[in-house]
Amino acid sequence: MGRVGRMTMSNPLPERIKALLESDPYAGVLGLSVSIIDGAIQTKSETSHSLVGNVNLPALHGGVVGSLMMLTASLELHHQLDSNQSAMLLDMDVDYLRSGRVIPTYGRADILRLGRRTATMTATLWQEDKNRPIAFSRMSFLVWMQGDESPALG
Amino acid sequence: MFQGNLRELPPFGETLGMDWIETDSSDVCLRLGVSDQVKLTAESDLFHPGAILATLDNACGWCIRQHASYVDGTSMATLNLRVDWLARASMTESLLVTARCESYADDVAHVRGEAFFRSSGKKVAVVQATFMLGTPNTARDGASNGQSRADDHE
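The joint structure predicted for all components is written out below.
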């Protein structure tokens, strides 16, 4: 999808997204890279044996699949937030649709609603064919203004 | 209550530095140790929610093997996983994750679990997951040469 009949536009990575990615060691563990395509974040993980959960198939670990969608959504949200806003994940519901093979894996996320204090998002992960997603998720984020006291949960 | 155990970890579990803790119940218990790669950011002292999710997913899958009805060798795949993050998880000590299998049927198993700190008992996340049982557990023809593989959940 997106390759036939329409052109995709790739844009330079905003400094905020670049900084977020560089400051996240866990994103490095997942081999994550980011591009802006048609104005939205698209993530890519090269994947490797170190990310495997089932060595027999082999298949990516469920935690890798969930984490890739989590990071994709977080980056997309921070891409859309004002520079003085920040967000943290509250909950996540992941549907695993197909096993993730150890091949390049791509992610996109959408904001369903961005309010003053929360954001509701979805994310999708695919590999060779965007029309055959390997996982789908819905997430809630808490949003706050930087400078205000960051929310303390629990 | 807790003793060492040599249960096998998947590659991603080893990547993140998880290890198994033996308990005196049918629950399984995993420990996520403090390390730079599971930090939220390089400057923070918080566990990354993605690393917590991965540990929860790993424990959820393994606890099914502890169920009285489990038949040795039965393969499984995560169908759905829901996580609520209840509190920020400071890296003052290792994080423990326990999971128990609530029901085990012909096709599916239901699991609940939580992540907490041992010293205070403070819960930082809870999980609820559904697993498909008897899913394919070997690479299918074509999987290794880049062709599409039939869905594991079908």
